[in-house]
Design a protein that fits this description.
Largest sheet: 6 strands, parallel
Bound molecules: manganese (II) ion
CATH architecture: Alpha-Beta Barrel
Distance between the termini: 24 Å
Helix content: 40-55%
Number of strands: 13
CATH superfamily: Divalent-metal-dependent TIM barrel enzymes
CATH topology: TIM Barrel
Shape: globular
Number of helices: 15
Length: 424
Protein backbone atom coordinates (compact mmCIF):
# COMPACT_ATOMS: atom_id res chain seq x y z
CA UNK A 1 0.00 0.00 0.00
CA UNK A 2 1.36 3.39 -1.02
CA UNK A 3 0.90 6.40 1.22
CA UNK A 4 0.78 9.57 -0.88
CA UNK A 5 2.42 12.85 0.11
CA UNK A 6 -0.86 14.74 -0.20
CA UNK A 7 -2.41 12.45 2.42
CA UNK A 8 0.38 13.33 4.85
CA UNK A 9 0.14 17.02 3.99
CA UNK A 10 -3.60 17.18 4.58
CA UNK A 11 -3.26 15.25 7.87
CA UNK A 12 -0.50 17.61 9.02
CA UNK A 13 -2.33 20.76 8.07
CA UNK A 14 -5.26 19.71 10.27
CA UNK A 15 -3.00 19.30 13.29
CA UNK A 16 -0.50 22.05 12.61
CA UNK A 17 -1.89 24.93 14.69
CA UNK A 18 -2.19 22.80 17.83
CA UNK A 19 1.26 21.31 17.25
CA UNK A 20 2.87 24.74 16.92
CA UNK A 21 1.34 25.93 20.16
CA UNK A 22 2.76 22.89 21.98
CA UNK A 23 6.13 23.29 20.33
CA UNK A 24 6.40 26.94 21.32
CA UNK A 25 5.70 26.00 24.92
CA UNK A 26 8.51 23.36 24.93
CA UNK A 27 10.96 25.73 23.26
CA UNK A 28 10.39 28.01 26.22
CA UNK A 29 10.90 25.22 28.77
CA UNK A 30 13.85 23.27 27.35
CA UNK A 31 17.29 24.52 26.36
CA UNK A 32 18.44 24.18 22.75
CA UNK A 33 15.45 22.35 21.31
CA UNK A 34 16.83 22.96 17.82
CA UNK A 35 19.84 20.69 18.45
CA UNK A 36 17.55 17.99 19.87
CA UNK A 37 15.26 18.15 16.83
CA UNK A 38 18.23 17.78 14.45
CA UNK A 39 19.46 14.69 16.32
CA UNK A 40 15.97 13.22 16.26
CA UNK A 41 15.76 13.71 12.49
CA UNK A 42 19.02 11.77 12.04
CA UNK A 43 18.11 8.94 14.40
CA UNK A 44 16.73 5.79 12.74
CA UNK A 45 15.41 2.56 14.19
CA UNK A 46 15.79 -0.78 12.42
CA UNK A 47 12.64 -2.83 11.97
CA UNK A 48 12.97 -6.61 12.10
CA UNK A 49 11.44 -8.51 9.21
CA UNK A 50 10.00 -11.03 11.67
CA UNK A 51 7.90 -8.50 13.59
CA UNK A 52 5.58 -7.51 10.75
CA UNK A 53 3.19 -10.38 11.25
CA UNK A 54 1.23 -11.33 14.34
CA UNK A 55 3.44 -13.08 16.83
CA UNK A 56 2.41 -16.08 18.80
CA UNK A 57 3.24 -18.11 21.84
CA UNK A 58 3.53 -21.86 22.08
CA UNK A 59 -0.19 -21.84 22.84
CA UNK A 60 -1.36 -20.20 19.69
CA UNK A 61 -1.25 -17.42 17.15
CA UNK A 62 -4.10 -15.18 16.13
CA UNK A 63 -3.48 -13.43 12.84
CA UNK A 64 -4.91 -9.99 12.20
CA UNK A 65 -4.90 -10.52 8.44
CA UNK A 66 -3.09 -8.80 5.61
CA UNK A 67 0.31 -9.97 6.88
CA UNK A 68 3.23 -9.74 4.45
CA UNK A 69 3.60 -13.01 2.53
CA UNK A 70 7.15 -12.53 1.30
CA UNK A 71 10.21 -10.32 1.64
CA UNK A 72 8.88 -7.82 -0.91
CA UNK A 73 5.74 -7.24 1.13
CA UNK A 74 7.79 -6.97 4.34
CA UNK A 75 9.85 -4.22 2.72
CA UNK A 76 6.65 -2.49 1.59
CA UNK A 77 5.32 -2.55 5.16
CA UNK A 78 8.51 -1.03 6.57
CA UNK A 79 8.49 1.51 3.74
CA UNK A 80 5.01 2.51 4.88
CA UNK A 81 6.12 2.84 8.51
CA UNK A 82 9.07 4.96 7.42
CA UNK A 83 6.85 7.15 5.31
CA UNK A 84 4.60 7.68 8.35
CA UNK A 85 7.32 8.45 10.91
CA UNK A 86 10.60 9.04 8.99
CA UNK A 87 12.35 7.11 11.77
CA UNK A 88 12.09 3.47 10.64
CA UNK A 89 14.78 3.68 8.01
CA UNK A 90 16.20 0.17 7.94
CA UNK A 91 15.23 -3.47 7.78
CA UNK A 92 16.85 -6.36 9.56
CA UNK A 93 16.59 -9.69 7.76
CA UNK A 94 16.44 -13.17 9.20
CA UNK A 95 17.91 -16.00 7.14
CA UNK A 96 16.62 -18.40 5.84
CA UNK A 97 13.17 -16.81 6.27
CA UNK A 98 14.13 -13.81 4.12
CA UNK A 99 16.52 -15.29 1.58
CA UNK A 100 16.07 -13.25 -1.59
CA UNK A 101 15.74 -14.97 -4.98
CA UNK A 102 16.48 -11.78 -6.88
CA UNK A 103 18.98 -9.74 -4.89
CA UNK A 104 19.06 -6.80 -7.32
CA UNK A 105 15.27 -6.46 -7.25
CA UNK A 106 15.25 -6.51 -3.43
CA UNK A 107 17.99 -3.88 -3.26
CA UNK A 108 16.07 -1.69 -5.69
CA UNK A 109 12.87 -2.05 -3.68
CA UNK A 110 14.64 -1.15 -0.43
CA UNK A 111 16.22 1.91 -2.08
CA UNK A 112 12.88 2.94 -3.56
CA UNK A 113 11.43 3.12 -0.03
CA UNK A 114 14.44 5.08 1.24
CA UNK A 115 15.53 2.20 3.47
CA UNK A 116 18.83 0.43 4.13
CA UNK A 117 19.78 -3.00 5.43
CA UNK A 118 20.47 -3.34 9.12
CA UNK A 119 22.22 -6.34 10.70
CA UNK A 120 21.59 -9.80 9.22
CA UNK A 121 20.36 -12.50 11.58
CA UNK A 122 21.23 -16.18 11.41
CA UNK A 123 18.97 -18.94 12.62
CA UNK A 124 20.39 -22.05 14.24
CA UNK A 125 17.59 -22.31 16.78
CA UNK A 126 15.31 -24.19 14.39
CA UNK A 127 15.87 -27.11 12.03
CA UNK A 128 15.30 -26.33 8.37
CA UNK A 129 13.86 -28.81 5.86
CA UNK A 130 16.54 -30.97 4.32
CA UNK A 131 19.33 -30.06 6.70
CA UNK A 132 21.67 -32.93 7.61
CA UNK A 133 21.96 -32.37 11.38
CA UNK A 134 19.52 -31.29 14.07
CA UNK A 135 20.00 -28.37 16.48
CA UNK A 136 17.97 -30.04 19.19
CA UNK A 137 21.01 -30.11 21.48
CA UNK A 138 22.57 -26.89 20.31
CA UNK A 139 24.37 -25.51 17.28
CA UNK A 140 27.71 -23.74 17.74
CA UNK A 141 28.17 -25.48 21.11
CA UNK A 142 27.22 -28.98 19.92
CA UNK A 143 29.31 -31.96 21.01
CA UNK A 144 29.27 -33.22 17.41
CA UNK A 145 31.68 -31.41 15.12
CA UNK A 146 29.44 -32.04 12.10
CA UNK A 147 26.59 -30.08 13.71
CA UNK A 148 28.92 -27.23 14.60
CA UNK A 149 30.25 -27.16 11.05
CA UNK A 150 26.74 -26.98 9.62
CA UNK A 151 25.89 -24.05 11.94
CA UNK A 152 29.14 -22.25 11.10
CA UNK A 153 28.50 -22.65 7.37
CA UNK A 154 24.99 -21.27 7.80
CA UNK A 155 26.36 -18.14 9.50
CA UNK A 156 28.94 -17.70 6.74
CA UNK A 157 26.17 -18.03 4.17
CA UNK A 158 24.22 -15.29 6.02
CA UNK A 159 27.28 -13.03 5.80
CA UNK A 160 27.54 -13.80 2.08
CA UNK A 161 23.90 -12.84 1.51
CA UNK A 162 24.38 -9.72 3.64
CA UNK A 163 27.39 -8.63 1.61
CA UNK A 164 25.34 -8.93 -1.60
CA UNK A 165 22.59 -6.78 -0.09
CA UNK A 166 24.86 -4.17 1.47
CA UNK A 167 24.42 -5.00 5.16
CA UNK A 168 27.39 -4.41 7.48
CA UNK A 169 26.72 -6.65 10.48
CA UNK A 170 25.77 -10.13 11.59
CA UNK A 171 23.77 -10.72 14.77
CA UNK A 172 24.22 -14.13 16.32
CA UNK A 173 21.67 -15.18 18.87
CA UNK A 174 22.02 -18.77 20.04
CA UNK A 175 19.38 -20.90 21.71
CA UNK A 176 22.28 -23.11 22.84
CA UNK A 177 22.39 -24.23 26.44
CA UNK A 178 20.96 -27.01 28.55
CA UNK A 179 17.68 -27.83 30.21
CA UNK A 180 18.98 -30.01 33.02
CA UNK A 181 21.99 -30.15 35.34
CA UNK A 182 24.63 -32.52 34.04
CA UNK A 183 23.39 -32.31 30.47
CA UNK A 184 26.57 -30.60 29.30
CA UNK A 185 29.98 -29.49 30.43
CA UNK A 186 29.89 -25.66 30.74
CA UNK A 187 33.52 -25.23 29.68
CA UNK A 188 33.25 -27.58 26.71
CA UNK A 189 30.08 -25.78 25.56
CA UNK A 190 31.85 -22.40 25.90
CA UNK A 191 34.99 -23.56 24.09
CA UNK A 192 33.05 -25.16 21.24
CA UNK A 193 30.99 -21.99 20.87
CA UNK A 194 34.08 -19.79 20.92
CA UNK A 195 35.87 -21.89 18.29
CA UNK A 196 32.75 -21.85 16.09
CA UNK A 197 32.41 -18.08 16.48
CA UNK A 198 36.10 -17.69 15.59
CA UNK A 199 35.49 -19.42 12.25
CA UNK A 200 32.51 -17.15 11.58
CA UNK A 201 34.54 -14.10 12.64
CA UNK A 202 37.27 -15.08 10.16
CA UNK A 203 34.68 -14.88 7.36
CA UNK A 204 33.65 -11.29 8.21
CA UNK A 205 34.59 -8.62 5.65
CA UNK A 206 36.89 -5.88 6.97
CA UNK A 207 34.09 -3.33 7.39
CA UNK A 208 31.67 -5.72 9.12
CA UNK A 209 30.76 -6.22 12.77
CA UNK A 210 29.45 -9.29 14.54
CA UNK A 211 27.03 -8.81 17.44
CA UNK A 212 26.92 -11.52 20.10
CA UNK A 213 23.47 -11.39 21.65
CA UNK A 214 22.92 -12.87 25.09
CA UNK A 215 19.80 -14.17 26.78
CA UNK A 216 19.30 -15.44 30.32
CA UNK A 217 16.98 -18.36 29.59
CA UNK A 218 14.50 -19.85 27.11
CA UNK A 219 14.35 -22.11 25.20
CA UNK A 220 16.88 -23.69 27.52
CA UNK A 221 15.92 -23.44 31.18
CA UNK A 222 18.98 -24.55 33.14
CA UNK A 223 21.92 -22.90 31.38
CA UNK A 224 22.38 -20.69 28.35
CA UNK A 225 25.78 -20.70 26.68
CA UNK A 226 25.65 -16.96 25.96
CA UNK A 227 23.56 -16.21 29.02
CA UNK A 228 24.49 -12.72 30.15
CA UNK A 229 26.51 -9.67 29.26
CA UNK A 230 29.61 -11.06 30.98
CA UNK A 231 29.63 -14.14 28.82
CA UNK A 232 28.89 -12.14 25.69
CA UNK A 233 31.69 -9.72 26.54
CA UNK A 234 34.06 -12.67 27.03
CA UNK A 235 33.27 -13.99 23.55
CA UNK A 236 33.44 -10.51 22.00
CA UNK A 237 36.79 -9.77 23.69
CA UNK A 238 38.33 -13.08 22.66
CA UNK A 239 37.05 -12.74 19.09
CA UNK A 240 38.56 -9.33 18.35
CA UNK A 241 37.81 -5.72 17.43
CA UNK A 242 34.96 -6.50 15.03
CA UNK A 243 32.98 -8.34 17.72
CA UNK A 244 30.56 -6.57 20.06
CA UNK A 245 27.91 -7.33 22.65
CA UNK A 246 24.30 -6.82 21.70
CA UNK A 247 21.83 -5.89 24.42
CA UNK A 248 18.25 -7.08 24.05
CA UNK A 249 16.19 -5.42 26.78
CA UNK A 250 14.10 -8.55 27.38
CA UNK A 251 17.04 -10.91 27.80
CA UNK A 252 17.89 -10.21 31.43
CA UNK A 253 16.82 -11.69 34.71
CA UNK A 254 14.17 -9.55 36.48
CA UNK A 255 15.35 -6.22 37.90
CA UNK A 256 18.76 -6.32 36.22
CA UNK A 257 20.27 -2.84 36.05
CA UNK A 258 20.44 -2.62 32.27
CA UNK A 259 21.51 1.03 32.24
CA UNK A 260 24.62 0.12 34.25
CA UNK A 261 25.42 -2.76 31.86
CA UNK A 262 25.10 -0.37 28.93
CA UNK A 263 27.33 2.21 30.54
CA UNK A 264 30.17 -0.24 31.19
CA UNK A 265 29.95 -1.91 27.77
CA UNK A 266 30.21 1.55 26.20
CA UNK A 267 33.19 2.37 28.40
CA UNK A 268 34.92 -0.77 27.11
CA UNK A 269 34.06 0.05 23.49
CA UNK A 270 32.19 -3.24 23.25
CA UNK A 271 28.56 -2.18 22.98
CA UNK A 272 27.47 -2.99 19.45
CA UNK A 273 23.77 -2.54 19.37
CA UNK A 274 20.35 -2.77 20.84
CA UNK A 275 17.17 -4.75 20.56
CA UNK A 276 14.32 -2.70 22.01
CA UNK A 277 11.21 -4.15 23.59
CA UNK A 278 9.62 -4.15 27.04
CA UNK A 279 8.79 -6.85 29.53
CA UNK A 280 7.34 -7.54 32.93
CA UNK A 281 8.50 -11.11 33.48
CA UNK A 282 10.99 -12.42 30.94
CA UNK A 283 11.47 -12.13 27.20
CA UNK A 284 7.94 -10.80 26.84
CA UNK A 285 8.76 -8.85 23.66
CA UNK A 286 6.16 -6.18 24.38
CA UNK A 287 6.03 -2.70 22.86
CA UNK A 288 9.07 -0.59 23.81
CA UNK A 289 8.21 1.81 26.61
CA UNK A 290 4.82 0.25 27.28
CA UNK A 291 5.62 -0.89 30.83
CA UNK A 292 8.81 0.78 31.97
CA UNK A 293 9.28 4.07 30.14
CA UNK A 294 11.46 5.40 32.96
CA UNK A 295 13.88 2.49 32.54
CA UNK A 296 13.99 3.16 28.80
CA UNK A 297 14.83 6.79 29.54
CA UNK A 298 17.54 5.81 32.05
CA UNK A 299 19.10 3.51 29.44
CA UNK A 300 19.12 6.31 26.86
CA UNK A 301 20.51 8.65 29.48
CA UNK A 302 23.55 6.33 29.82
CA UNK A 303 23.75 5.85 26.07
CA UNK A 304 23.87 9.56 25.33
CA UNK A 305 26.31 10.29 28.15
CA UNK A 306 28.53 7.31 27.26
CA UNK A 307 28.52 7.91 23.50
CA UNK A 308 29.32 11.60 23.98
CA UNK A 309 32.20 10.66 26.29
CA UNK A 310 33.67 8.62 23.41
CA UNK A 311 32.73 11.12 20.68
CA UNK A 312 30.50 8.58 19.00
CA UNK A 313 27.87 9.39 16.41
CA UNK A 314 24.51 8.65 17.98
CA UNK A 315 22.74 7.63 14.80
CA UNK A 316 25.38 5.43 13.21
CA UNK A 317 27.94 4.08 15.68
CA UNK A 318 25.56 1.62 17.34
CA UNK A 319 22.92 -0.65 15.84
CA UNK A 320 19.40 0.42 16.91
CA UNK A 321 16.71 -2.14 16.38
CA UNK A 322 13.36 -3.26 17.63
CA UNK A 323 12.97 -6.93 18.51
CA UNK A 324 9.40 -7.43 19.60
CA UNK A 325 6.42 -9.65 19.03
CA UNK A 326 2.84 -8.51 18.61
CA UNK A 327 0.32 -11.03 19.83
CA UNK A 328 -2.73 -8.88 20.39
CA UNK A 329 -2.08 -5.57 18.61
CA UNK A 330 -1.81 -4.79 14.92
CA UNK A 331 1.93 -5.36 14.31
CA UNK A 332 2.32 -2.13 12.33
CA UNK A 333 0.53 -0.03 14.95
CA UNK A 334 2.66 -1.68 17.62
CA UNK A 335 5.86 -0.83 15.73
CA UNK A 336 4.75 2.79 15.35
CA UNK A 337 4.24 2.92 19.12
CA UNK A 338 7.67 1.36 19.79
CA UNK A 339 9.48 3.79 17.51
CA UNK A 340 7.64 6.70 19.14
CA UNK A 341 8.63 5.50 22.63
CA UNK A 342 12.28 5.06 21.63
CA UNK A 343 12.45 8.51 20.00
CA UNK A 344 10.84 10.07 23.06
CA UNK A 345 13.29 8.40 25.46
CA UNK A 346 16.16 9.58 23.26
CA UNK A 347 14.79 13.14 23.23
CA UNK A 348 14.42 13.09 27.02
CA UNK A 349 18.00 11.87 27.43
CA UNK A 350 19.23 14.64 25.13
CA UNK A 351 17.46 17.21 27.28
CA UNK A 352 19.17 16.22 30.55
CA UNK A 353 21.23 19.07 32.00
CA UNK A 354 24.56 17.19 31.92
CA UNK A 355 26.64 19.89 33.55
CA UNK A 356 24.26 20.26 36.47
CA UNK A 357 24.06 16.47 36.86
CA UNK A 358 27.84 16.20 36.97
CA UNK A 359 27.99 18.92 39.61
CA UNK A 360 25.33 17.16 41.67
CA UNK A 361 27.32 13.91 41.45
CA UNK A 362 30.55 15.64 42.48
CA UNK A 363 28.77 17.19 45.46
CA UNK A 364 26.97 13.94 46.43
CA UNK A 365 23.74 15.90 46.05
CA UNK A 366 21.51 12.89 45.58
CA UNK A 367 18.20 14.75 45.69
CA UNK A 368 19.36 17.24 43.06
CA UNK A 369 20.56 14.40 40.78
CA UNK A 370 17.14 12.76 40.97
CA UNK A 371 15.40 16.08 40.30
CA UNK A 372 17.51 16.64 37.19
CA UNK A 373 16.74 13.24 35.70
CA UNK A 374 13.05 13.40 36.55
CA UNK A 375 12.78 16.93 35.20
CA UNK A 376 13.87 15.57 31.81
CA UNK A 377 11.63 12.52 32.03
CA UNK A 378 8.53 14.38 33.17
CA UNK A 379 8.70 17.16 30.62
CA UNK A 380 6.45 16.25 27.70
CA UNK A 381 8.83 16.25 24.73
CA UNK A 382 6.42 14.64 22.29
CA UNK A 383 6.12 17.90 20.30
CA UNK A 384 9.88 17.73 19.58
CA UNK A 385 9.56 14.19 18.20
CA UNK A 386 6.56 15.31 16.13
CA UNK A 387 8.46 18.36 14.85
CA UNK A 388 11.35 16.12 13.71
CA UNK A 389 8.83 14.04 11.76
CA UNK A 390 7.17 17.11 10.29
CA UNK A 391 10.50 18.48 9.02
CA UNK A 392 11.39 15.10 7.54
CA UNK A 393 8.15 15.04 5.57
CA UNK A 394 6.35 12.50 7.75
CA UNK A 395 3.12 12.60 9.74
CA UNK A 396 2.57 14.61 12.90
CA UNK A 397 0.52 11.75 14.34
CA UNK A 398 1.51 8.51 12.52
CA UNK A 399 -0.85 6.15 14.33
CA UNK A 400 -3.79 8.47 13.79
CA UNK A 401 -3.07 8.70 10.07
CA UNK A 402 -2.52 4.93 9.85
CA UNK A 403 -6.05 4.40 11.14
CA UNK A 404 -7.62 7.24 9.19
CA UNK A 405 -6.51 5.88 5.84
CA UNK A 406 -7.44 2.33 6.92
CA UNK A 407 -4.07 0.69 6.22
CA UNK A 408 -4.95 -2.68 7.74
CA UNK A 409 -8.25 -2.89 5.87
CA UNK A 410 -6.43 -2.16 2.60
CA UNK A 411 -3.75 -4.77 3.33
CA UNK A 412 -6.38 -7.41 4.07
CA UNK A 413 -8.12 -6.52 0.81
CA UNK A 414 -4.95 -6.94 -1.23
CA UNK A 415 -3.27 -9.81 0.64
CA UNK A 416 -6.16 -11.67 2.17
CA UNK A 417 -7.31 -12.40 5.70
CA UNK A 418 -5.53 -15.68 6.18
CA UNK A 419 -1.93 -14.73 5.53
CA UNK A 420 0.85 -15.68 7.92
CA UNK A 421 4.21 -13.94 7.83
CA UNK A 422 7.36 -15.93 8.55
CA UNK A 423 8.78 -15.18 11.96
CA UNK A 424 8.25 -16.03 15.57
MN1 LIG B 1 16.86 -9.95 20.25
Amino acid sequence: MILENYQIASHNSELLAKHQRRLAFIADEVADTEAIIQKLINFQIGIPSWALGTGGTRFGRFSSGGEPRNIEEKIEDIGLLHKLNAASGSISLHIPWDTADDVQAIKALVAQHGLSFDAMNSNTFQDQAGQAHSYKFGSLQHVNKGVRKQAIEHNIEVIRQGVELGSKALTVWLADGSCFPGQLNFRTAFQNTLESLQEIYAALPADWKVFVEYKAFEPNFYSTTVGDWGQSLLYASKLGPKAYTLVDLGHHLPNANIEQIVSLLLMEGKLGGFHFNDSKYGDDDLTAGSLKPYQLFLIFNELVEGMDARNMKHHSDLGWMIDASHNVKDPLEDLLQSVEAIMLAYAQALSVDRKALEQAQEANDVARAQELLQQAFRTDLRPLVAEARLRAGAALAPLELFRKIKVREELIKSRGLKTVATGL
